[in-house]
Amino acid sequence: MRIGIDGIFSRRGVPRVLALFLSAGLGAPLMAQTAQFTLGRNVFVPAKDGTVTTTFTASYSGKTTLSIYNSAGELVRVLFPTAVVPASMLNSLTWDGKNTSGKVVAPGIYIFHLALILGSYDKRLVVLD
C-alpha cells in the first residue's frame, strides 16, 4: 500500500491545492468512487413525449453539474447547476426539449453531460420532430 500526496505549491512551499490518495499497487484507488447515470430513453420527440427523465447517483458527496450540449458542442441548457449533492442520493431531472431561451430544440443528437468532482459521464439522446 502506498500513501501519496499530490499538490501544487506556491513559492514558499505552502500547498495551494492538496489531494491525498491511498493506493494499492500502480496507483489504483483502494475505494472505487462510482456513479450511476441513466437516461429514460434514447430517442425523444418533444411534441409527442413531453419530457425525458434522467437520473444519477454517486457513491460520494461533491459538486455536481448536469448540462445538455448539441452535437456541435454548444451549451443548450443546464438542468442541474453546480451544487453539492449528498452521497448515494438519487437525483431525477426532466427535460422538456427546450433550450435556455424556452424554444424547442432542433432535431439532432444531444449530449447529457454529468460532471462530478471525480469524473464526468455522457449520455446521448436523439431528438426527432
Structure description:
The structure is a single chain. The strands form three sheets. Strands 4-10-9-6-7 form a five-stranded mixed sheet. It has a three-stranded antiparallel sheet with strand order 3-5-8, with no helix packed on it. The protein is 3% helix and 57% strand. The chain is mainly beta and 129 residues long. It folds into two domains: 1-31, no CATH class; 35-127, Sandwich (Immunoglobulin-like). The longest helix has 4 residues, at 46-49.
Could you outline the blueprint of secondary structure elements for this entry?
Elements: E1 2-9, E2 15-23, E3 35-39, E4 43-44, H1 46-49, E5 52-58, E6 62-70, E7 75-85, E8 91-95, E9 108-116, E10 119-127
Parallel strand pairs: 4-10
Antiparallel strand pairs: 1-2, 3-5, 5-8, 6-7, 6-9, 9-10
Give a nutshell description of this structure.
The protein is 3% helix and 57% strand. It is mainly β and 129 residues long.
Helix content: under 10%
CATH architectural arrangement of the largest domain:
Sandwich
Count of folded domains: 2
Biggest sheet architecture: 5 strands, mixed
Average pLDDT level: 79
Spatial strand sequence of the major β-sheet: 4-10-9-6-7
Q: List the helices and strands in order.
A: EEEEHEEEEEE
CATH topology name of the largest domain, in short, is Immunoglobulin-like
Q: Report the top-level CATH class of the largest domain.
A: Mainly Beta
Structural class: mainly beta
Strand content: over 45%
